[in-house]
Amino acid sequence: MHDEVGTVGERQDEPLPERTVRRLGELIADGVHPPGSRLSHGELMVELGVSRATIRAALATLAGLGVIEFIAGHGAFVVDVSEDDARQLCTLRAEIQPLLVGRFVQRAAPEELALAAQAIRRFAGLAQEGAGIEQLREACEEVYEILLGSRVSWVLGKVVRTERLRLAIYTRRRLSAEDQLARLRRGARSLELLVPSILGRDGCAARRLCELSIAEDSAEMLRASARHALTSSAA
Q1: Which one of 10, 28, 30, 33 has the fewest CB atoms closer than 10 angstroms to its CB?
Q2: How many domains does the chain have?
């Protein structure tokens, strides 16, 4: 059985079905499987080192999240994220993510709060040191795995994780590498401002800061996308 191999990702404590969905989502967001491309069960089995049943389940999950679609008689295809989609996703994020972050701050155990603060400081430190885009992405995801973890609503957490994945697909296709890096650095600075609220267990303050950060990020992301589109069309 391929499922014994464990090549799907490095988080071995993560259940295999969730790990497969996460890793396939990352490959789609990274452009390994760009929008419009067909996803072959056989190729994914080799690429991820898991069984056909695991791939089938992961594709069904991603279809439910709107990341891929099944076309009868043709298979599974990666769905593109349009500018209108991105605007709707930004609105959804602004409505839900601050609520979940505030809830985490209010409900998390002291050691979880300390872990969140540590992850944020690591992310911010890497950004200040000029780390590369992949290292910053990993550090950023580590932060949000904590903030959107077990202390928040499972259903709403799933919605936000879906939104983050679909926005990742959008930004990695519609933003220049320079703008993607600038966005990560901006995100690190914004998250660092949350640390006093997290350690002080001030959920209301954390929620307000998150609302401001998301509003700034959404506006700048859409501006950067428009700039990239103009540059690409001119070229």
Answers
A1: 10
A2: 2
